[in-house]
Specification:
The chain has 4 helices and 2 strands; from the N terminus they run αααββα. It has 97 residues and is mostly helical. The chain has a two-stranded antiparallel ribbon. Strand 1 and strand 2 form a beta hairpin. The protein is rod-shaped. The N and C termini lie far apart (85 Å).
Length: 97
């Protein structure tokens, strides 16, 4: 049996399965077909034509959330700063402390 003939036969079988109202498993058992084979042909023949298996995806950077920076001194004081403080300014502050 050629591939085209096999595909035609399974198109008819898939149409019969859809009309039967049975699950894939029940239809396969009732007809004497291997369950995996029925599932394979249903997936193959009901897949929308022209729809790729993989779709292109554009990854965008996540929005950055400014996390607060908290500096604590052993003498008991705490300095809270916004997370978007420039690193150069923070380095200058640390040197001054």
């Amino acid at each position: 049996m050629s591939n085209k003939d096999r595909q035609k036969v399974w198109k008819e079988r898939v149409a019969q399965w859809q009309a039967s109202g049975l699950s894939q498993r029940a239809y396969a058992i009732e007809q004497g077909f291997p369950i995996r084979q029925v599932g394979y042909w249903i997936r193959r023949l009901t897949k929308a034509p022209g729809v790729p298996g993989l779709l292109p995806v554009r990854v965008a950077p996540a929005a950055s959330v400014a996390v607060a920076i908290s500096l604590r001194n052993e003498r008991g004081w705490t300095l809270s700063l916004p997370g978007d403080v420039p690193a150069s300014w923070l380095a200058e502050l640390m040197r001054a402390l």
